[in-house]
Amino acid sequence: MGRVRLLHYAENKNKNILYIMNKSFRIRNNYSLYEALNRKEKHGGNLIVFIMKPLETSKRNQQFFANHTKDLEEKLSLLSDQVKRLDWQDLWVQELSQYRGIVLDKAYLREDFSQVHKIVEVAKNQGISVLEVDSNVFQPALDVTDKEEYSAKTIRDKIWRLMLQPLVLMKEETHIGEQAAFDLLNQFIEEKLIHYEDANDPSKDYRSGLSPYLKYGFISPNVIYDIVVKTKKPGYESFLEELIVRRELAYNFVLFNKNYDKFDGMTYPWAYQTMQMHLHDPRAYLYEKEDYIHFKTHDPYFNAAMKEMVLFGRMHSYMRMYWAKKIIEWSPSYEFAYNLAIELNNEYFLDGNTPNGYTGVAWCFGKHDRAWIERPIFGKLRYMNDNGLKRKFDIEMYVKQINEEEKSINKK
Ligand SMILES: Cc1cc2nc3c(=O)[nH]c(=O)nc-3n(C[C@H](O)[C@H](O)[C@H](O)COP(=O)(O)OP(=O)(O)OC[C@H]3O[C@@H](n4cnc5c(N)ncnc54)[C@H](O)[C@@H]3O)c2cc1C
Is the same domain home to 111 and 76? Predict the structure, then answer.
């Protein structure tokens, strides 16, 4: 099957191709762009590219996107005939009937599906073909499997067995967003990769920080893979397990589970059963969004994690697990906890609104995990507490680091 899928076929006499860049905001290893360029060559017309403004309400995320795509029009104009930046509402007033075909980046989330659906409807009315290209995953999701996978264990081999395909292709045209991702990646390889086995420690900065760059498709996971695998440094396999297996399991989840963003349906029957049994367990603390975003819980580690989220749009990956587990513990119901965790995740994280975000939160409710020993409130869901943080890490150091970072922005 490959990365390219025909969503609608129609014949017309036009020659020009339109690429609606809606998820892969880059040039190198942008398989959608390559497909559009091939079609342009085949039909002898022009290639027009529309750079779509992401559907984001967060000002910080809009700014991040704008800063990292400043030169994208200029770079794309070297390869295409016309480039325009558009809001989604402006797309519907464009004269699409002039095109032979439209190429799109594959949708995974509900809101993206809805835009693609509208484009296909317009194309049907106007007799234009539509192709979607699965450009932001290491292996095309529908080649990996045709069903929702149960866990990392069940998807892992299905991803790696497709390794025969060529990975890194041409167009060495780097734009600001990709360059920023390369800079992070190089620093990660030089200074952190060999420590990646200890990357769970929140007081150590051993993670790559690449997730926002992957979210906007500024860099391809295939390019990262290609660079990292050649280093053969200790830690590289663990890193690829996260970048490829965990991330692609998340894409599989949102693609095949139509309730990926709803409390009812996102996790397993055993998890719902255990939550039902413990719904009325007494809660020692009950908090709401306002307490969280003003760092007013009794737990200094949770508050520090919330500072990372609210002030900087990020959170250490181990603390993300702890964070969502505590929201479960301090909420009047599991559904309340789920909805609030998703809301905060999408509102504050630079890498929010992604398959990873929905999957990460669902994981805290048992998805892709197993049943554990029964406990109050959590039932058989995996339990995490502050003693675990104290036992495993220098967690006071984490709090100190975040407080210092907070002071430094307050001084500015
Ligand atoms: C409750 C909760 C919420 C989360 N929300 C998000 C979110 O909104 N957006 C997001 O991108 N990730 C989310 N994650 C997954 C993970 O925590 C982040 O991807 C990671 O912290 C990003 O930091 P990094 O780029 O430095 O990761 P690194 O450790 O450097 O990993 C490299 C890349 O691998 C992928 N990756 C790493 N861990 C995971 C994982 N557990 N699942 C899927 N992919 C992974 C990411 O794309 C990441 O950029 C969440 C996890 C949990 C438990």
Answer: yes
CATH number at residue 12: 3.40.50.620
Residue 277 lies in a domain: yes
Q: Which residue owns the Cα nearest ligand 1 atom 18?
A: 317
Torsion (CA) 198, 203, 205, 207 in degrees, nearest 10: 50
pLDDT in tens, 257-270: 999 999 999 999 99
State the first-to-last Cα distance of the chain, in angstroms, to the nearest integer. Answer: 53
Pull the structure tokens for residue 56.
Answer: 């984001």
Question: Model confidence over 202-231: pLDDT tens digits?
Answer: 999 999 999 999 999 999 999 999 999 999
> Does ligand 1 come within 6 angstroms of the Cβ of 364?
yes
How far is Cα 354 from Cα 362, in angstroms, rounded to an integer? Answer: 13
Choose which residue among 151, 189, 211, 363 to substitute to test ligand 1 binding: the one with the highest number of ligand atoms within 8 A of its C-beta: 211
Identify whether residues 30 and 130 lie together within a single domain. Answer: yes
Ligand 1 pocket, mutate which of 197, 317, 329, 348 (most atoms under 8 A from CB): 317
Residue 169 has pLDDT above 90, yes or no: no
Q: State the residue range of the domain holding 377.
A: 269-411
Do 250 and 304 sit in the same domain of this protein? no
* Contacts with 48 (C-beta within 8 Å, 6 or more apart), sequence order: 16, 17, 18, 19, 80, 81, 82, 83, 84, 99
Checking if the pLDDT of 374 tops 70, the result is yes
CA distance 173 to 192: 27
**How many other β-carbons are positioned within 10 Å of the β-carbon of residue 17?**
28
Strand-pair partners of 101: 17, 129
